[in-house]
Give the backbone structure.
Amino acid sequence: MKLDSEGHESGIVNPTFYQELNEEQTSSETVAARDGALPPIATVSHPMYQQHQLNDAYQYRKPKRALHRELVASVRRMDAKTCCSTVFPLTTWLPEYSWSKDLVRDLISGCTVAVMHIPQGIGYALLANVPPIVGIYMAFFPVLVYFLFGTSRHNSMGTFAVVSIMVGKTVLAYTGTSEPGEPPRTALDVATAVCFVVGIMQLIMCVCRLGVISFLLSDTLVSGFTTGAAIHVVTSQIKDLLGLTLPSVGSMFEIIKTYIEIFKQIVNVNWAAIIISAITIIVLVFNNEILKPKVAKRSVIPIPIELITVIAGTLLSRYLHFQEKYSIKTIGTIPTGLPAPTLPDFSLMPSILIDSFPVAMVGYTVSVSMALIFAKKENYEIGFNQELFAMGTGNVLGSFFSCFPFAASLSRSSIQYSVGGRTQIASVISCGLLAIVLLWVGPFFEPLPRCVLSGIIVVSLKGLLMQVTQLKSFWRQSWIDGMVWILTFLSVVLFAIDIGLLVGIVLSVCCIFFRALKPYTCLLGNVPNTDIYLDVKRYDGLIQHAGVKIFRYCGALNFASRAAFKTTVCETLGINLTEEIKRRKDPDWKPSAEQACRVLVLDFTSLSSIDPSAIGTFKAMVREFEVLDIRTVLAGCQPPVFEVMQKCGLIGDIDKPYCRVLTSVHDAVQYAREYVGNGSIGGSVVSAATGIV
């Protein structure tokens, strides 16, 4: 191969070369190729372009954005119908709703979910340390708002265990506090203030188009966090399962302090409460593990075991006088009717901003995660920012009607989908049934033992607790993900829920930076008789041409990774630049007979971006290599990377650039071999297996 002044290959390909090449193969190789064991032979020939020559030959130009035209076009597309469908997503599916087929499914689904709302609403309200009826309010007011503005057709909104316990921590911390001259705050005052702040935060995130921020919470983080939160929920229910009354222990190190208090009062347990709790848990587990799978084969409608348990517990408590005879704690007073709208406590809001942010993030992330699962199954789109708007609006409105922050429930959403629910009309039907409970049926549940609700809550957390088995798969996929899971889980369990969430987010962001600063790099070798180059540490039988080193870098080069890039290149080549340059300046230094590296080919086909800071470091590195008589050649730079290099002067001078840029690794290697003076042949080079010139 010869190079002319323009850098193209000179010489004429011998027309009989390919025929002679094929005749050199053994008969066994020919048979293997015919049977498909060897790849077919292909012939490719092209000039050896440098990047600027290829750009000139094919009139390269950078695409220009007409920003004003894009804005005008986007405004023209926003007609009244589009605006209406964006703000009210139900207008996209309601005209296509089949009232004859879908309504029956939504009716069954709505009734089933309404039955689940009653025990879960009452139980999770107790988790949030607010009156039990608040859980039913949350299944009514926010759900109606989400029906109007939400994009998920299958999420069951309302109380959610993790959000409830996070709100409960804040409620405990601020209940009883007051401003000078004001009465002490009630638990409901604190909960509604949190609800209002969470709603405002979500609306601000919607305005700032931060819907995708939920993806900062990786699957590993969410799994570790929710598993740890489930441990908190179980711990909070032990006092009712055992019939104990525990003092407040604060939010930091709560689990450790709670178990210390439990062991201190273990002699004061209520054996009647323990028996009722055990019977409740046994019945629920028997249904879930044995009856439920059998019933599912015959009917899509599951046994409403939670509601049956609640009704049975209420009736037994009422007629056997559990509270009077056995000192069993009951739900207590449940008012009837809908709550009157009241303003939340605005004076408390500055104090709860930090506590409210993780509630807003967790509620939104869990809801979007569930929505994406159902949207993928049913082939429709989820609007991330619209979800923020729907949840923010629902929380702001709910704060005026005695609600705390709502989210999608994992169990209820799964049931709503599995029994055939098609749209959010199922939620409207559920709201209608719950309105009857709010207006007339509420007081019926006043004698319900709290230990029964605790048993229901503990059993319902099995799915979250069993997420601990995911640790093995996370660790198998990546030890970094495994450590994120472990540290997030331990932070939640040992310290506090909000601290654990913060630790998880910081670890996830650090993982992003760690992986960006440690991209995949390797030395490449040539597959004989091809233009394929592979990692020499992962493949055997590769050719490494004398005097030529090929270094592949996959990732981005920027101010943060520039030093690591230079260090990695030097370590891979086995060169200490500082020491080598000092040695060259020594008057007694003599060049070695054969230098290990004469040309460094940098494979930048996978370089996603580069910034001016990195180019500055790159220029200095190239000059330092030139002192060592090592020439640098770049290969396969993508157009955006090439443009930045031109702007920063790395390759701007055609006559004397810092380094040459060729279009492919193979061309760069041939160029380097010609420079080294090794393997030069007359005419063009053709590979034996692929016939590549």
Notes: Residues 1-36, 679-693 have pLDDT under 50 and may be disordered.
